[in-house]
Amino acid sequence: MIVYISADIEGVAGVVSPAQTVQQGFEYERARRWMTEEVAAACEGALVAGANEVIVSDSHGNGQSLIIEELPANTRVVRNWPRPLGMMQGVETPGVACAMLLGYHTGAHHRSGVLAHTSSGLLFSELRLNGAPASETTISAAIAGQFGVPTVFASGDAAYLSHATELLGDALTTVATKDAFGRYSAMTLRPQDAAAKIQRAAEEAVRSSGEATPFTIDAPVTFEAEFQRHIPAELLDYLPCAERISSHTVRFIGEDMVAVSKFLSFVTAVKFDEQLP
Predict the structure, then answer these.
(1) Global pTM value
(2) Helix extents (H) in 26-172
(3) Cβ-based neighbours of 202, under 8 Å, separated by 6 or more
(4) For 43-60, what is each residue's pLDDT tens digit?
(5) CA 64, 67, 73, 79: dihedral to nearest 10 degrees?
(6) Could you give the domains of the chain?
(7) Hey, what long-range contacts does 27-31 have (CB within 8 A, 24 or more apart)?
């Protein structure tokens, strides 16, 4: 049995500031260590519950935030970008039984949650799937679901967990690492306390994963990306597969979530030359 973990940093205990999420920022080296400790704890819990292997997607920033030598044995790590399945690369591996979303956060359309955004806060103001606003959790769980993999665990701030539970159901095992007061403030657990909770919860989630149901999106999938500025929508409209439906928004219709993920990965990798007035 293989357990899959997609790991982000914004939902990790102690992380409250954009500076902690970028390489040149204040406390980034500490924040990536906190992230690594939480991922290692989730791996240990999964292995205790009977997993033979854990595949971890390093899904924050440059995709190389985890200190990989500090992860336990029987762990493989997906690193760097671009990837066809984005934050969920590796979930397609034969034998993956369940997925966990660790250190995740609320989406751009949510009113609360630490560092809320979707995919890229600088690029997008909102993403939508089949007309409904979509968070990174929506996209990640739907990609896992296409491969028949249920999402059984999530961790992040309490506002995020309200969203994740509403989306994926009350059977989802969760760990709240902090309580958000605002976009840049929270009351947080100590990193070591969060890691201990995550290890126990991950073990519980894997043990009960056989009863979980994959989250799926009806296909074909209508994907809409609303950008912060005009030029990405203008340039993507040049492509025959994309349609500019407003000044800032592009629509793409994919045959499934893999196609949507590839389009999203392309869009986030392109460097748009924005010449500001």
Answers:
(1) 0.97
(2) 28-48, 136-146, 158-168
(3) 41, 42, 43, 44, 45, 46, 49, 100, 153, 173
(4) 999 999 999 999 999 999
(5) 0
(6) 2-117+136-211 (3.40.50.10780)
(7) none
